Amino acid sequence: MKTWTIEETQKLSYLFPITTKDEIEKLFPNKTPLAIYKKANRMGLKREKRFAYKTACQARTKIKYQRNKTKTSKGYILVYCPNHNRANKSGRVLEHILVWENYYNKAVPKGYVVHHINEDKSDNRIENLCLMSSSEHIRHHHIGAKRLLGTREKIGQKTKERLSKPENHPLYKNVDILQMQKEIELGDTVINVCKKYGINKTTFYKKIKKGDYKICST
C-alpha cells in the first residue's frame, strides 16, 4: 500500500476544505478516492460550506426532506422517493444510494455497492461515499472480524457441504481442458481462453495439474 508523503499530506490539508470532490480527486491522480477520503477523515478535514454537496431533495425542500427521513435498525437513513427502482414497499430508498446517483447522474452499477468511508452509515455526504464491488465490500467488512467458535464451526460446515456437491466446486466445471490447451498452443492467451470458457486462471491451472497436462505457452 502506498503511503502518504509529507508533501502530499500538507497539500491535502490545504486543498481539501476549498475544493470539490471532482477537483480533489484530479489533484491526487495516484490515489484512489477511497484512500483520499479515508486520509481526510483521519485528519479531521471538512469542506467549507460553499464546496459541500447537497442532494437534490435537500435543495428542493429541506423541511420536507428531513420530515420523511427514517433510520433502519442497522443505522442506514431512508428517504421517501417512491418512483425510484430501489424503493421499498413504503416508497423509501437508502439515502446514500440517492446521494451517489444524484451526484454522478447514473444508477449504481449491477454488482456494486456504495460504501461509507468512515463507517458511519448515517453520514451520507458525497465525500464520504465511494463505489465498491460487492465482493470487495464483503472482504472489507470481514477482515479481522471476530466470531464465536460455534459460528465459525457452522460457517465451516456449510462450506464443506456446499463444496461436497460437484456442481458447486470450481474444479468440476464442465470445460474441455484439452480444447483450451489447443487454443493456447495456437497462440491465444490463457486469460482470454479462460474468459471464453467461464473459468479463472487458478481453476484452469488446477485442472491442468490434476490431469497432468502441460502448458506450452501463456
Give an account of the 3D structure.
By secondary structure, this protein is mainly α. It folds into three domains: 1-51; 53-145, Homing Intron 3 (I-Ppo) Encoded Endonuclease, Chain A (Alpha-Beta Complex); 170-211, no CATH class. It is 46% helix and 9% strand. It has eleven helices and five strands; from the N terminus they run αααααβββαββααααα. The protein has a three-stranded antiparallel beta sheet. A two-stranded antiparallel ribbon has the order 4-5.
SSE order and pairing:
Elements: H1 6-15, H2 21-27, H3 33-42, H4 56-60, H5 62-67, E1 70-71, E2 77-80, E3 92-94, H6 95-104, E4 112-116, E5 129-133, H7 134-142, H8 149-163, H9 177-185, H10 190-197, H11 201-211
Antiparallel strand pairs: 1-2, 2-3, 4-5
| Secondary structure: helix percent | 40-55%
For the largest sheet, list the strands in their spatial order: 1-2-3
* Rg, alpha carbons: 24 Å
Number of strands: 5
Q: What overall form do the CA principal axes indicate?
A: extended
- The CATH class of the largest domain: Alpha Beta
What is the fold-level CATH name, i.e. the topology of the largest domain? Homing Intron 3 (I-Ppo) Encoded Endonuclease, Chain A
Question: Can you write the helix and strand succession as a string?
Answer: HHHHHEEEHEEHHHHH
Q: What is the CATH architecture term of the largest domain?
A: Alpha-Beta Complex
Classification by helices and strands: mainly alpha
Average pLDDT, all residues: 77
Poorly predicted segments:
54-67, 212-218
Q: What portion of residues belong to β-strands?
A: 5-15%
Number of domains: 3
* Main β-sheet description: 3 strands, antiparallel
The number of helices is 11
Distance between the termini: 29 Å
